[in-house]
Amino acid sequence: MKSAKRKFRFYDYTVLISPTGQKASNLKEFQDIIERAEDKVMFHHLYQSHVRYGQEIGEFPNDFANWSAYELEDIALAEKLANFNPYDYKTIRKAREVLMEIIEEHIWGLPTIPWVRPGSEFYFSSATTIVLPLGVEVANLNEFRDALDDIPDSSLYFHFYESRKIKKEKKHDDFSQWIEDNFRKKELVQKIREIDFYFFSVEETRQKLINILDSDLNKVKK
Amino acid sequence: MISLEDYQSIIGKRNIKQIKSLARLYRGKKIIMVNSTKDGGGVAEMLHRLVPLLNELGINCRWEVINGNNGFFNITKNIHNALQGKRIKFSNEDLEKFIRVNKENAKSINLDADMVIIHDPQPLPLVDFYPKNKTKWVWRCHIDMSRPDLSLWKFLRKYLMEYNASIFSIAKFSKILPHPQYLIAPSIDPLSGKNRELSSKEIEGVLKTFNIVRDKPIILQVSRFDSFKDPIGVIKAFRIVRKEINCRLILAGGLASDDPEGEMVLEEVKKEARGDPDIHILLLESKSDIKINALQRVADVVLQKSLKEGFGLTVTEAMWKEKPVIGGEVGGITIQLHNHRTGFLVNSIEGAAYRIRYLLNRPSVSYKIGNQAKKFVSQNFLITRHLRDYLALFYILGNPGKDIIYIGKSKKNFGS
Fold first, then answer.
1. Which among A8, A119, A135 is the nearest to B17, CB-wise?
2. Are residues B361 and B313 part of one domain?
3. Does A17 contact chain B (CB < 8 Å)?
4. Which of A63, A99, B55, B308 could be joined to B84 by an S-S link, Cβ 3.0–4.6 Å?
5. How far is CA B384 from each of CA A105, B21, B139, rounded to the nearest angstrom?
6. Which pLDDT score, from 0 to 100, does residue A171 have?
7. pLDDT of B75
8. Is residue B391 part of a domain?
9. Does residue B317 share a domain with residue B296?
């Protein structure tokens, strides 16, 4: 098994959520707060829902879509917000612009502004992230595959989801980047990059990655 | 003595390692926790476990309790109720006494530390009586603050403004404040007497003590005798269910030393039960962990029909024991129970009765929900996650203004 020029070091990730104290009781307030919210608030609600309170609980991939569906009970808006993929945009500014267009267009078509009952308001938050070494290093693809079974969800989320956004110079996830930099595995890299990760829970993404790695490593054995 | 390593079989080696790595950053620092009781209630229970674990990790953590007479605790109980939305008019004398007792406590409690964490409103004004130095003051609110009484909130906010940060259990309780706010959910200890596995001999022993026979389904609510826990509503819901299904109800709870209202509520509950032999009202002493554990393990359905709730640790405890739980749709219960997945949320006596019948008639659904509930708790509400959040908080407050904090290596080194 070929060894990498540089080992892959897994990092772990812990996050502490900070509520801003702002809340939206209806769709217009929701739109207004989103327009003015700090980038870190947008980042938290659009990207970090994947690691909070077990992703299996929410049906939709971000907080805005889940609130629209379960609290505002506007399923059409939830569907539109669920289909919006913030990873398609390079900056939070651009993602916010597109999101605002979706909400504005939706409000335009409504006869009245929908409200939620007291207690079901949308509460805006941001988060502070601490990134620390996990203490796991791998030198080849077999070791990498085995580590995928073992690393916590938070680590997998960090390398496969969030690191694309916090490292501006990188377009891709850390895993496919490492494989591309260290092994001649164009097809494997391609398959990893084709994972529709935003619509999967962290656990589902882990299974996809394992299946792709297993199939590639088995091919090598044959 | 339970040590951090003992949790490895439950949360895995990696999570233990993460906690140790985070703790290294704050080793040797001095932290003081302050609340108003050593016994009774969820706060004291969590501190009994968190304080020794923080010390084991090398953090110098001490726990102080403020003193007060019955008059003081009557006022603080009213403050607690008003913060949870009850309309209560406070006289100037009451508020002056509340502040005066805090001032007297400040004379005898040394709070010279890197961080002081004040739990709940009883010791909130302490901050006013200590010099403003390097110490970081954090207010940890455990109660349902979604709709506090406005005039009381304005009064307390003056003191809260002096703090460096606040912690709430869920976002719904947060307020617009001039300092950072953080969310830390409470937790249970899976190895404590209240939550560890019990032998059938231990369980039978407890049932014998209380003369409870397992001849029909058991519905249980474990709670302090407090009107916000709605024990009367639980009895009414039980009576609706019993028209269709022969079953027993156990209402078990203690009285906290900082809650003088409890005895009055207990009398009301006894009156409502009218001596019904299928309604067991159990007044538990403060060291009744094994008894509560056993009762939760024999229950077929667990209720927490609260009307206001900071978090609802009894919900978490029952979920950990794979029980289907029905809870009031309030406060922290809403982040624990998700309909049809980890339990049921209800908004009325009739709703509680309907869900009890639904679950008693569908044992396979109860089993599946119980199973998912345990998994959910193990991911989110164990003491080890709580410990990790506190360690993260210490570090974050020491690095203000940063959204991402890198430890160990520079960000360029991630991955390869």
1. A135
2. yes
3. yes
4. B308
5. 45, 13, 21
6. 78
7. 95
8. yes
9. yes
List the domain range (segments joined by +) for residue B285: 200-380
Same domain, B96 and B168: yes
Note whether A128 contacts B22, CB cutoff 8 Å.
no
Domain CATH for B146: 3.40.50.2000
| B246 and B334 belong to one structural domain | yes
Residues 6 or more apart from B342 whose CB is under 8 A from it? Answer: A57, B319, B325, B336, B369, B372, B373, B376
Question: d(Cα A144, Cα A140) in Å, to the nearest integer?
Answer: 6
* Closest CB to B335 among A40, A53, A178: A53
Q: At CB < 8 A and 24+ separation, what contacts does B207-215 make?
A: B207/B294, B207/B298, B209/B291, B210/B280, B210/B282, B210/B291, B212/B248, B212/B250, B212/B280, B212/B298, B214/B298
- pLDDT value for B401: 84
pLDDT at B410: 47
pLDDT attached to residue B416: 47
Q: What is the pTM of this model?
A: 0.88
User: What pLDDT is stored for residue A57 in this prediction?
Assistant: 52
In a domain, B359, yes or no: yes
Q: Which candidate from B335, B380, B416 shows the least CB-CB separation from A182?
A: B416
> Which pLDDT belongs to residue A222?
62
Q: Which stretches of chain B drop beneath a pLDDT of 70? A: 256-258, 409-416
Residues B219 and B340 in one domain: yes
**Strand partners of residue B327:** B304, B345
Interface check A135 vs B, CB under 8 A? yes
Contacts of A55 in chain B (CB under 8 A): none
B195 domain residue, yes or no: no
Question: Hey, is the C-beta of A8 within 8 angstroms of any chain B C-beta?
Answer: yes
Q: Do both B119 and B218 map to the same domain?
A: no
Q: How far is A58 from chain B (nearest CA, A)?
A: 10
Answer yes or no: do B210 and B310 share one domain.
yes
> Which residues, given as ranges, of chain A have pLDDT below 50?
55
pLDDT for position B17:
84
In a domain, B30, yes or no: yes
∠ CA(B281), CA(B190), CA(A207), 5° rounding? 125
Task: Say what the pLDDT of residue A169 is.
Answer: 59
Domains contained in chain B, number: 2
From chain A, the residues in CB contact with B341 under 8 A are: 56-57
What is the pLDDT at residue B265? 93
Indicate whether B305 and B329 sit together in one domain.
Answer: yes
DSSP state of A95: H
